[in-house]
Amino acid sequence: MNDRARMNRHDIEEGVALALDFDKLDKVATCGQPLVPVAVQDADNGELLILAYANPEALQYSLDHRVAAFWSTSRNELWIKGATSGDYLDLVEVRVNCEQNSLLYRVRRRGQGCCHTQDRHNRTRPGCFYRRLGKTADAPLEFI
């Protein structure tokens, strides 16, 4: 695993070097907002699209407007998915886990994708989980 602090955004999002952010939950915990994780799933095919966070404001916005909204821990603001890209996620239902400490948004994509990154043809990726991780003879963990 490489030193994430020395990598730029493009290398992290598009590169072949594994650079997991093991400090993410520390950053979430210190963002000043009460948050729960939100798994976002395509309501039609079950694909996991995004893992994000919601505070009470984001959850209420989602329920009121029937589109997925989150709390951006990097910008420290309400994040209405699709507001800038047009790739809205229409809310089908919200589920709560047994311990009431995480949510599942089941959605339908209104645009062509939902990830903020693009593929090699400059198309918005359908989801954020576009790379697979595995072991090889050359490295204990790498993208395959």
Characterize the structure shown.
With 144 residues, this protein is an alpha+beta fold. The chain has one domain: Phosphoribosyl-AMP cyclohydrolase (Ubiquitin-like (UB roll), Roll), CATH 3.10.20. The chain is 15% helix and 28% strand. The chain contains three helices and eight strands. The chain has helices at residues 9-14, 24-29, 56-65; strands spanning 36-42, 48-54, 69-72, 77-80, 89-96, 103-109, 133-134, 142-143. A four-stranded mixed beta sheet has the order 2-1-6-5, with helices on one face. A hairpin with a 4-residue loop joins strand 3 (69-72) and strand 4. It starts with 8 loop residues before the first helix and ends with a strand.
Which key phrases capture this entry?
144 residues, alpha+beta, Ubiquitin-like (UB roll), four-stranded mixed beta sheet, two-stranded antiparallel sheet, globular
